[in-house]
């Protein structure tokens, strides 16, 4: 039976609960982080903790715990649930005031904090990484503050279903003619050896994996250009890939039915995946 963490307590999952008045439930007034676990250790915990603080700050939400305590809770859940490979999900909401009201509740309302683990044995050896994934492009109909990692994920969920219905793995979202990102990952193309990915702004989530992968690419003397690109340019690219905490670097081999290159994972995506996994495991805590 899985142990989860809710507001200071480690509980069996069946005994854990939050209020029906919780603003996460009523208004999606909450933020989250997902940190992967490889070999029982957390990958880039510091990056996720930093982004959590940023998301909370942008929403003027109080942090329920300090970073060292947050690390302890992550580690304790990994230990209690014997997670070798998998992930830790963390969510903080603005808490549960007495009534439903659009205005934020009083400052002293306790935030809600929930963490749970998901076990995914062999996470880094996913078969999809060998074949690559296929994507379709869809309009980006999300709100305008995608840099805040809120739990308001309905359009991402709808996008994933559009991809499924089209018989592919994921969707890349398009706004004003350019790709923003995948439903739950950052999007990249490679042309003539150059890695191209949209620059940071409020239009996309500032991926923790993105930051690490771009740094490692530059350290490996690869060329990186941060700019938007169109679906047409993407379909003519030599290769493509996505990054996220739970998929690391995942090759993309088809966009809207157009195969990229020879339709198999490209050399740069494969190399970056190897480098990212190797380097991240070394510094995992
Ligand atoms: N973009 C979106 C919309 C996401 O939901 C995610 C991850 O959940 C990412 C990008 C990748 O971010 P990270 O590398 O921090 O997991």
UniProtKB/TrEMBL annotation:
- Keyword annotations from UniProtKB, A to Z: Amino-acid biosynthesis, Aminotransferase, Branched-chain amino acid biosynthesis, Pyridoxal phosphate, Transferase
For this protein, the record's Gene3D superfamilies field holds: 3.30.470.10, D-amino Acid Aminotransferase, subunit A, domain 2
Organism, by scientific name, is Histidinibacterium aquaticum
- Its protein name is Probable branched-chain-amino-acid aminotransferase
Q: What would be one Gene Ontology cellular-component term for the protein? A: cytosol
Database matches in PANTHER family:
AMINO-ACID AMINOTRANSFERASE, AMINODEOXYCHORISMATE LYASE
Q: Which reaction is catalysed here?
A: L-valine + 2-oxoglutarate = 3-methyl-2-oxobutanoate + L-glutamate; L-leucine + 2-oxoglutarate = 4-methyl-2-oxopentanoate + L-glutamate; L-isoleucine + 2-oxoglutarate = (S)-3-methyl-2-oxopentanoate + L-glutamate
The protein's matches in SUPFAM superfamilies, at most eight in alphabetical order, are given as: D-aminoacid aminotransferase-like PLP-dependent enzymes
So, what pathway does this thing act in? Amino-acid biosynthesis; L-isoleucine biosynthesis; L-isoleucine from 2-oxobutanoate: step 4/4; Amino-acid biosynthesis; L-valine biosynthesis; L-valine from pyruvate: step 4/4; Amino-acid biosynthesis; L-leucine biosynthesis; L-leucine from 3-methyl-2-oxobutanoate: step 4/4
Q: Which cofactor does it need?
A: pyridoxal 5'-phosphate
């Amino acid at each position: 039976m899985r142990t989860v963490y809710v507001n200071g307590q480690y509980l069996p999952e069946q005994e854990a609960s939050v209020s029906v008045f919780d603003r996460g439930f009523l208004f999606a007034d909450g933020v989250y982080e997902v940190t992967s676990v490889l070999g029982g250790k957390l990958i880039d915990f510091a990056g996720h903790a930093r982004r959590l603080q940023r998301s909370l700050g942008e929403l003027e939400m109080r942090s329920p715990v300090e970073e060292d305590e947050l690390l302890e809770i992550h580690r304790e859940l990994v230990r209690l649930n014997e997670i070798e490979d998998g992930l830790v999900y963390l969510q903080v909401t603005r808490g549960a005031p007495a009534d439903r009201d659009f205005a934020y509740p009083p400052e002293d309302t306790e935030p809600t904090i929930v963490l749970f683990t998901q076990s995914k044995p062999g996470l880094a050896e996913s078969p999809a990484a060998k074949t690559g994934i296929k994507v379709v492009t869809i309009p980006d109909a999300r709100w305008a503050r995608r840099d805040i990692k809120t739990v308001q994920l309905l359009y991402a969920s709808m996008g994933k279903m559009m991809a499924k219905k089209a018989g592919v793995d994921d969707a890349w979202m398009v706004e004003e003619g350019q790709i923003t990102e995948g439903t739950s990952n950052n999007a990249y193309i490679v042309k003539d050896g150059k890695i191209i990915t949209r620059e940071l702004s409020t239009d996309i989530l500032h991926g923790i994996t993105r930051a690490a992968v771009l740094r490692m690419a530059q350290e490996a003397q690869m060329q990186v250009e941060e700019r938007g690109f169109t679906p047409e340019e993407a379909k003519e690219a030599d290769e493509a890939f996505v990054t996220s905490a739970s998929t690391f670097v995942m090759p993309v081999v088809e966009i809207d039915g157009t195969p990229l290159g020879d339709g198999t994972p490209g050399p740069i995506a494969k190399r970056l995946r190897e480098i990212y996994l190797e380097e991240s495991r070394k510094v995992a805590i």
